[in-house]
Amino acid sequence: MPKFRLISLCLLLALMVSSPLQSFSYADEKEKDEDYYQMMKLFADTYEQIERNYVKDIDRRVLLEAAIRGMVQELDQYSSYISPKDLSRFNQVVEQEFGGIGIQVHIDDQNGRLTVMTPLPGTPAYKAGIRAGDIIDSIEGKSTKGFTLSQAIKILKGREGEKVKMAVIHKGTNKSIPLTVQREIIHVATVLGDTYKEDDSWDYMYDKKAKIGYIRLTHFSRHSAEELRAAIEDLEKQGLKGLILDLRFNPGGLLSQATEISDMFIESGKIVSTEGRNSRNRKWEATSDNTFKDFPMAILVNRYSASASEIVSACLQDHKRAVIIGERTWGKGSVQNVIELEDGDSALKLTTASYHRPSGKNIHRFPGAKDTDVWGVTPNEGYRLRLTDDEMETLGEYRRNRDILDHTAKLDTEFKDKQLNLALDYIKEQLSGKGKPADKEADKKAEKKPAAKEEKPAKKAAVVPAPAGNPLVIRTT
Q1: Is 80 an annotated catalytic residue?
Q2: What does the pLDDT read at residue 32?
Q3: pLDDT of residue 429 exceeding 60
Q4: What is the pTM assigned to this prediction?
Q5: For residue 318, is it within any domain?
Q6: Which residue among the candidates 137, 246, 263, 318 is catalytic per the annotation?
Q7: Are strands 346-356 and 80-82 parallel, antiparallel or unpaired?
Q8: One domain, residues 238 and 267
Q9: Domain extent for 114
Q10: Are the beta carbons of 392 and 399 closer than 8 angstroms?
Q11: Furthest C-alpha separation in the chain
Q12: Confidence tier at 472 by pLDDT (50, 70, 90)
């Protein structure tokens, strides 16, 4: 038997054996098997023809992975194939942990050099004296001139305990200083405050006189609930009276963290439910243990708040625990499971279920959905405040500058975050006794009104947009 035919038949057999068969009558099952056989034969024959007769050699794995990606792309924008070379980075995004030195870097648009945006508090880079604005002159003896971010990250990341040799030029100097930094497991915090305190920890108390806390949640990763509880407990020790939870630009993350965080703020009732074609329907209920309940809350959202962000904001809105402020959210109401392939060397991120808010309303924005349809999470009546694209860019730049760990830097005190200020006004009204949460009648009136027309967001929502004409890409290592 020719080699190529043998390969095709083996591939066909493997695909058929691995496919789960459902129970049908004998005739239906036989017909289904025949259709399945013909489809797999078509795939195997196509694979063989390309490998055998294409104008130049092509790697078999490249062909197979392209076929898998093609299948997945027919499903939806959230399902994807994760190849072995991409799996490590995917896991790092989920876990927010990796072996590295603990800095955020970018290519400076003024000099084109690899530059430190900020070190992360307490990391090897920070302890070694690397500071915001430093130029990384060389890594392992290689000049970084012309380096891409991907090249730099690949060299700087590595196993815990290993050392990396580098040279840096401190901001304001011209001298290249050699450093040897030992890699550690870097934990990227997902719970942030407004500014750093003198001890390099985040300051979560935004208004010290009124005792109003402010916490930003950037992702829902493995330790987010744990980090958030610690931050609120720290605020309570300072006499917390009101809390603003900022979920703007939060693209989502782990469902388990969304349900755990929601449970922190309500004592009973449904948090979220999921329904799938081939997975059992599930419902998450709140418990009364360790609930934060004795202070008013406002949640900030925008058109880039998605998935797990929408679970939390929808839950707390439906239970009247928090007022939602800002603009209508992204509209992602689907659940993806990560299924291991090749004994864990690759993976399939597959949409397996949809989720629904406690009220039963839809969150997912289906293709072709109109602005007047029900999707996403809409801010409470009287608290809708949409920023223009220019305002969004200015907010992003303002936020990045405040996130730099540099106690000598002068912080901008002129910029006004209109959405945050509206949240502050709401909390202060609640504390003064003059305001009251949106009641059922107000909610009914809001439902009757058509939703404000929303601009369609970009296809991906993961980071704060950079100013127009000056794209900024930041990576952490």
Answers
A1: no
A2: 73
A3: yes
A4: 0.80
A5: yes
A6: 318
A7: antiparallel
A8: yes
A9: 97-186
A10: no
A11: 85
A12: low
- Distance (Å, whole) CA 338 – CA 346: 10
Query: pLDDT per residue over 163-215, tens digit each?
Result: 999 999 998 899 999 999 999 998 889 999 999 999 999 999 999 999 999 99
137, 203: one domain:
no
Cβ within 8 Å of residue 119, ≥6 positions away: 102, 103, 104, 125, 126, 130, 131, 132, 405
Asked if 260 and 310 sit in the same domain, the reply is yes
Please tell me which residue in 157, 241, 270, 332 is annotated as part of the active site.
Answer: 332
The backbone torsions φ and ψ at residue 121, rounded to the nearest 5 degrees and listed phi first, read -55, 135
Q: Residue 335 in 3-state DSSP?
A: strand
Compute the distance between CA of residue 429 and CA of residue 296 in angstroms, rounded to an integer: 10
Question: Tell me, what's the pLDDT at 443?
Answer: 47
Domain CATH for 161: 2.30.42.10
Q: What are phi and psi of 437, to 5 degrees?
A: -60, 155
Told to judge if 307 belongs to the known catalytic residues of this protein, a careful annotator would answer: yes
Catalytic annotation, pick one of 138, 224, 307, 334: 307
Q: Catalytic annotation on 318? A: yes
* Continuous H helices in 415-472: 418-432, 440-448
* Helical residues (DSSP H) of 359-475, grouped into ranges: 389-402, 418-432, 440-448
**64, 46 Cβ separation under 8 angstroms:** no
Instruction: Supply the pLDDT for residue 234.
Output: 97
Most confident of 16-20, 213-217, 358-362, 443-447: 213-217
What does the alpha-carbon distance between residue 156 and residue 164 come to, in Å, rounded to a whole number?
Answer: 7
Question: For residue 437, which amino acid is it?
Answer: P
- Token pair recorded at residue 123: 């990391």
CB 187 within 8 A of CB 126: no
